[in-house]
Each structure stands twice: as C-alpha cells, then as structure tokens.
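Appendix B, record 7
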Amino acid sequence: MAVALDFLGIARLGDGLIAATDGAGKAAAAARAGELAVRTVAAGVTARTFLDRRALLNAMAGIVATGGSTNGVLHLLALAHEAGTGLMLDDLVQVARRTPVLASLVPTGTYAAADLERAGGTPAVIRELVRGGLVDGAAPTVDGSTLADATREAPAPDGEVLFVLERPFKETGALHVLRGNLAPDGSLLKLAPGARRRQRGPARVFDSEEAGAAAVRRGYVREGDVLVVRYEGPAGGPGMREMLSVTSSVVGAGLGESVALVTDGRFSGATRGLMVGHVAPEAARGGPLAAVHDGDAITIDVDAGVVDVELEPAELERRLAAWQAPPSPYEGGVFARYRALVSSASEGAVLRA
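Structure tokens (predicted):
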C-alpha cells in the first residue's frame, strides 16, 4: 500500500519505502510530509482531488508490478467506493491480467522493500510502467507535477531487484477472480508461481478460523480436502480477519500442495497454495458458503474462473431457506452497528450510511 499511495499521487514519491530502521530517513520523510500537508491545506487541496478512476487503476498496476496483493484489492475497492468512481472488482483484476510483475520481492521473489528502495523505489517502477503505457503518466501528484514528470529522472531497472517490461520478473500478476454458485459476487485468489490451478475434493467445514486451524493440527484435514472456513467475512468476523493461523497450519502440516481453502475471510501477502478468499456474499449474510455441509464436493478451477459446490440449485436453495445465522460472540454496542452496516468484500468492506 505504500507503493499504491505513490501511484495514487497522494504521497511524496518514494518516501513510503524508507526502511523502518532508517531513523534519520524516516524523520526527514515525516518533516517533508508535514510541510506538504500544510501547503495542500492552504491551497484547498484534498485527497478527492486525486482519487479518480485513473488514479485507482494506476495504483492497481503498481500493486501488481510489485507482487501484491489481495489486501491491496480490498483497499482500492474501499477507496473507489468512498470516491464514488464506480470501480469494481473485475476492473481491478483486468489490470492484474495485463500488468507484469517487475519487482523480485518476497514472498515469491528474493528481495525486501528496502532493496527496492535502494534500486530506485516506487519512482523507478512508475517510470517503467509509464514507458510501457501501463500507467497513465498524465495523472497528477500532490506536489503539483504529473507522475511522468516526477519520475522522469528515476533510475532504469537494475535487472536484479527491478526488471524491464520486455524481460519482467513474471509475465503477469497472480490475482484471479473466481465466481460460481459459492461466490456469485466474486472471490479472490492470489496464485503462487507453480501452484496447482484446479482441485476437486470433499468439503471440511468450520465456522471460525480457530476451529479450522485446530482441526488441521489434530489431523482431521487430509490430502485432497477443501477446507471451508466461514463466518469470517466483514460482518461475520467481524472485521474480516486475516486467516494467518489456518493457512500456516495447512502449510505446517505438509498439506499446502494438497489441501485447498475457501473462505469469506482474507489472507496475508505470504499465503501460498490454492487459497480462495473474499467469498461474497459472505456466510453471515446468508451467502451460499453458509449452506455447505461436510463432504459436499467443491471444485476450484482457476483457468475457468470458477468456485462451485456440486449441489443441485433446488438443494442449495432449500438449504439456504432453512439457514439461521449462528450466534456471534460479538453482539451489542459498536460491533452490532458495524455488523449491520458493513458492506461486502466485493465492495471494499466499507460502512454504509
């Protein structure tokens, strides 16, 4: 997201990648940000000056070119909603399909963000994408210049940390949207290089991340299973927690290459394997994920863009008609308001008025 903010034009280019251990560099960046904030307030400039459709598509290109990220998609959808741009999930993933990965960053690459900063940082990435027509260089930045003008003197890719468009680190980004009777409004997958692209297997269903992780550790989940973790979406979580425990348990049990996961929760950038998140509508809102039973056959097919449960439409409809929301441990007060007002992950999980 530090990269995305630069591409959006609302931050001083390059300062977001200064390493946390660089105290002097961080202090200088903070001073520059403060001075810039005072100037923009005096000029009557706000973030809404920059947050249009073009800026958000530019930011998506930047996220993909640096190896991200399902969380980046969620944040951009939220910004799109607040800015009233009408930008949707499929718009962002279309950018992911056409944008190569230029930076060799962990977890799928070799280097850390601080290495990218030393190799030219975000300005070098922007310059390369503008050169290839994948970013609109005419977009404005908060310092008054355009993206193209602000990065004209950025260094060329070094071929080690950052690559040129003609010989990218990876040909395309790893983000995919899957739909089907389990995710009518979409779901999101970040596929690691070399990972399998299809799996069909029996569902092992859990109503929380903790229950799913415990089952993996006890050996209940076996090769070929499709782990379903539900009620962890924006309203169900509440707050759409990252599924760090269950995904690390799957990999730690040696099942990362044989067990898939489908959830209405979200993942961290380090998640590996066939892990489908952001399923919408979520189970807590009566989405189809709420109707899945242990043993139901689930198919995930990346190339077909599908995540399905093998149930006749009438049976799925019957189960959903009989469904009742389980009690939540987070009832009352601010949680009740949040659960009532939060939108779907496919809309950025923002609070509706």
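Remarks on this record: The chain has a mean pLDDT of 92. Residues 19 and 114 are 6 Å apart (CA to CA).
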